[in-house]
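User: Sequence in, structure out. Go.
Assistant: Echoing your sequence, followed by the structure tokens.
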Amino acid sequence: MWKEKEQTKLDIDWRHFYHSVFALVIPMALQNLINVGVTAADVIMLGKVGEKVLSGASLAGQVQYIMVLFLFGLTSGATVLTAQYWGKQDRRTIEKILALGMKSAMVVTAIFTVAALVVPDLLMGIFTNDPEVIAEGVKYLRIVAFSYVAMGITQVYLYIMRSVERVVVATVVYLISLVCNVILNAVFIFGLLGCPAMGIQGAAIATLIARLIELVLVFAYARIYNKEIKFRFEYFLHTEKYLVKDFFTYAFPVIINEVFWGMGTAANTAILGHMGSAAVAANSVAQVARQLATVVSFGLSSAAAIYLGKTIGERKFEHAKAYARRFLVLSIIMGAAGSALILAATPIATALLELTPAAKEYLRFMFFVMSYFVIGQAMNTTLVVGVFRSGGDTKFGLILDMGTMWGCSILFGALAAFVFHCSVPIVYMILMSDEIIKIPITWKRYRSYKWLNDVTRTV
């Protein structure tokens, strides 16, 4: 077994390591923060309109959330390959992976667009049985669905750019999008500048316009500025069979993993959705708080996948082991910082939002649970999404989530809610237990080094 003391034999410039890592982490954390900001803007502004409207938008957002997880699975699978091929400086293969990812994303988003337009009532009915909440959510879905394809194209392109260490472009694109979204939200929701007050439909229109702006900015960057990695239409039409096989060998387990993880999160929302609108409203705020508290941790996991993937592609395996340990330590530090942020935000959130007394009590307890949940999530995400996937170990995460989430937290949470009729706080604590259960399992996998593999080909 490889020992810590062996790291001292490696010629590693740790100052350069931290500089390189945080050059990746900071822009990606900002991207995550900006993406959360879009959701937070909806929550804050729609929270001023009413609890039913807030709940409707929150639950309608679960449809997009599941779609984004499909896209994240595609892009994470692509990152496994592109980061390692980037280490080999094989730009031609990276361009083929970009085209293949783009084609796959367009298929996925088209399916979700059709579903959201044709059967929005059915989709909303999965998450709640409140007819007023369903009606509001349907209004939102029928507008925002037109943004899905644009979102898919944008996300795949920017994630591929991230995997070749071009991270600033995504930050700029999403920042411009956020500013536009917040301004348009205020105008359309509340009826400013002579526009009629459109409530939840205004929030959907603002989101649609912001996504289209993102797409235009990406096209401009790809056409004018990006001279290294280009989108080539011939690769979009045809990709070699070996690359398609490699792409789905590593992407498919990630797609299934992310979708089942997302469906698990959606199942948590659905369980709480059937326990009343107060629980839904409190959970929607708690989820935004969790996302805000983990923006740096998720940026760190993405940086780990890119940095370690590149290192493995260069065949510096001992360096990869040493770097992985540092990423793990950083994840624990970032998780603790996120925990402190949630605890500090508890009185602010309960004071600012127009929630019922019951929803505020639920919110206080949910923030407490989130304060320790984010520490486990930071560690597990850095290892599973960052370290393990960098070496092509994509199947482990699928098995882990299926066992801990679906086999434990969701199963027992549903039993607590619908069989034993436990209170909302008890059900919520059970639903959020999976990240704590994962910790010893992910640690054992990390120490085995079974994740350390070169998955590139010489062609």
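User: And one key feature?
Assistant: Residues 52 and 132 are 7 Å apart (CA to CA).
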